[in-house]
Structures are given as C-alpha cells and as structure tokens.
Amino acid sequence: MRTLLIAAVSLAITSFMATTADARGYRYCLKSSPGPGDCKYSSYRQCKAAASGLNATCVRNYGPRR
C-alpha cells in the first residue's frame, strides 16, 4: 500500500512539472480560427509544417512566460 501511495505522488509531481514546463516554452501558434490558436510549436518551421495543407497561419506567441 505504501509503495502504491509513493508511486501515485511521484506521478502527480512529474505530470505537474511537465505541464508547467510545456506551457512557457512555445514561441509560435497555429491559427486557423478566431481565438488563441494551437500554441505548441517551438520554431516557425515546425508551425509551418503543421499548417501545410490547412487554411491556417503561424503567429508569434506573445502570451505570458515565466
């Protein structure tokens, strides 16, 4: 039982750390409709590759960073 509790706490801490690290590092957003867009691209090239074949553009992410 104790091992299960330690594993669950470790998993929760790891997932929280991954979420906060992911949120601040992305510089470009894929925009295909009004709203914030899909901001998960660290380079313009990655964003343009994802936009290929779609009616979308890549814009700089000026959102909050830590």
Explain what this protein looks like in three dimensions:
- The chain has 66 residues and is α+β, with helices and mostly antiparallel strands.
- It has two helices and three strands.
- Strands 2-1-3 form a three-stranded antiparallel sheet, with helices on one face.
- The longest helix has 23 residues, at 2-24.
- It is elongated, with a radius of gyration of 17 Å.
- The protein starts with a helix and ends in a 6-residue tail after the last strand.
- The model is unreliable at 16-23 (pLDDT under 50).
In short:
By secondary structure, the protein is of the alpha+beta class. It has 2 helices and 3 strands; from the N terminus they run H-E-E-H-E.
* Mean pLDDT figure: 77
Number of helices: 2
Helix content: 40-55%
Low-pLDDT stretches are 16-23
Topology as a string of helices (H) and strands (E) = HEEHE
Shape: elongated
How many domains make up the 3D coordinates? 1
Short key terms for the protein model shown above:
about 70 residues; alpha+beta; three-stranded antiparallel sheet; 2 helices; about 45% helix
Give me the secondary-structure topology.
Blueprint: H1 2-24, E1 28-31, E2 38-41, H2 44-51, E3 57-60
Antiparallel strand pairs: 1-2, 1-3
